[in-house]
Amino acid sequence: MPPCSKGCLLVLRDASLFYGMPPCSKGCLLVLRDAYFLAEGGRIGSGLLPFNGKAAELNYAVDQVPAPDSVTPATEESDADHLMLAKSYFDIKEYDRAAHYLQNCTSAKAYFLHMYSRYLAGPDNSADSSYLKVIRQELYKKYKVNELDGYALYLYGIVLRKLELLRDAVDVFVEALCKEPMLWSAWLELALLVTDKEMLQSLPVPEHWVKHFFIAHTYCEMQLNEEALEMYMDLKNHGFSKSTYVMAQIALAYHGLPDMDNAVLSFTELQKVDPYRLDNMDTYSNLLYIKELRMELAHLAHNCCDIDKYRVETCCVVGNYYSLRGQHEKAGLYFQRALRLNPHYLSAWTLLGHEYMELKNTSAAIQAYRHAIGVNQRDYRAWYGLGQTYEILKMPLYCLYYYRRAQALRPNDSRMVMALGEAYEKLERLQEANKCFWKAHCIGDMEGMALFKLAKLYERLNDEEQASAAYAEFIHESECFGVSRPSGVYGAVGQDHLANAYKYLANYHLRHGNLNDAFMAARKCTEFIETREEGKAIQREISHRRAVGYGESTPVDQTMNNEPPRPLALFRRQPDGGAADDANRPSFRISPVQLNFTP
């Protein structure tokens, strides 16, 4: 190679110098300019990985050609050719080759890439940690003498976390951030190790503007979605209104609350701003699946396939689409394809477990959920899915354990509390179940069944007054949500539950001589197929009692009008009011439950 070739790489850094060069230099530049830009800062590169690799190999081969006298290479400059070649191998995932060509380099950048390549070249098996121990020993030698830069400290922290040396890992990540506060990967790794809000506030991380993003992200990880949403809104109002990352995190916070409508609106706005974005689209597809928006989900699936059908997010979106259509086997195939692309993708493992549950393959579902927990122990959906699986297998103690783990991650999610209460009920631990159902009602029952379960439990405990009060409140709330309309639109509660509630109240009032209320409840019973005959029987009994002068003395036309009083007026009487004939009526007020235990 002529001597000018090396000079081409070192001197010809401006594209404007391309014209007017001698033919040999022009030819060298054509080969080497992409290789130079690949090495310069990391970093630009043509994006043509095979071409970059060949260019780097050619550049490495002319290493012995002397450079012009005007160039005095520093430490990193002397390793530039090795870095260029190793980076080209790193980009095509030939990690062993990348590590080999950097083993004798001395610069901090080359040392990091060498050790990181060795880490990535290790076996993808959590049970085999021998190679991690070797890497840890080598990093520890430099760590003791303070020779690790921020990037190498980040790698050291990852190794410590993989070896489950979590306290040491936290300290190392904090040191890495003190040296490189813009290293977002270290912030993310540190977020995985934060266990509670107190620990988050006590971390000695640098006071950098990135810290606000870290705290908001950690709030999301810990399911503190209200605090996370407040922080992201504040960031949005202080200069990051156009940040698609902030917009996506706001949508995720709404999803975690859960505020499905605002979450869908946020994702829709995000798609308008960044129509070719695939990040977080799997979460958006989960929302569309829950809301059963089939047309929107089909459009999203087609759009993702047009952008990149080999991304894990695309596979999850398409899988959700087929799952909504009831094609669970095909949905499972797409989730498996996502896991072949990325075996550590949390959402795919959880969704695959859901599909196995739909296919009644409980053993495969358990394995999928366990893999999800192995990826991220904060995934409450996986813990909840395991609880459901063991509930199907009629193993209540296992079921209770997993529901407790899910509820600990989502303490204000009524679904978790309800599942925990049902597990306690199956184990005949009725007082604990009572507290769970009451808590689910207090924090906002998403499924509308907490009061009904509470009433049934009071029935088992022979507490008639509390059972009737719970049933009355259940009817009132059902009416408020448009459930008890005669048109037959009963929503998630189900008309059989309302029929049972009215039947219990009719019998309860009949036993206590409240014939007016008993008649109204019995009349409501006749609107349901399940309790029609029993309602008619109660009405006949009331007519018989009135005929013999037993019970309340009320004109017939007050109880036989065509439009009966609303359930609120009937069954939610207060203890301090009413006519004289209401003196002996129960109050229909549920007594608060003391939640002095940890579910």
Please explain how this structure is put together.
With 599 residues, the protein is mainly alpha-helical. Among the domains are: 396-462, Alpha Horseshoe (Serine Threonine Protein Phosphatase 5, Tetratricopeptide repeat), CATH 1.25.40; 463-482 and 492-547, Alpha Horseshoe (Serine Threonine Protein Phosphatase 5, Tetratricopeptide repeat), CATH 1.25.40. Helix content is 66%, strand content 0%. It is built from 33 helices and no strands. Helix 5 (80-91) runs parallel beside helix 7, helix 8 packs antiparallel against helix 9 (150-162) and helix 15 runs antiparallel to helix 16. Residues 1-51, 67-73, 483-492 and 553-587 have low confidence and may be disordered. Residues 66-251 form the Cdc23 domain. One of its GO terms (biological process) is protein ubiquitination. InterPro entries: APC8 (IPR007192), TPR-like_helical_dom_sf (IPR011990), TPR_rpt (IPR019734). TPR repeats lie at residues 312-345, 346-379.
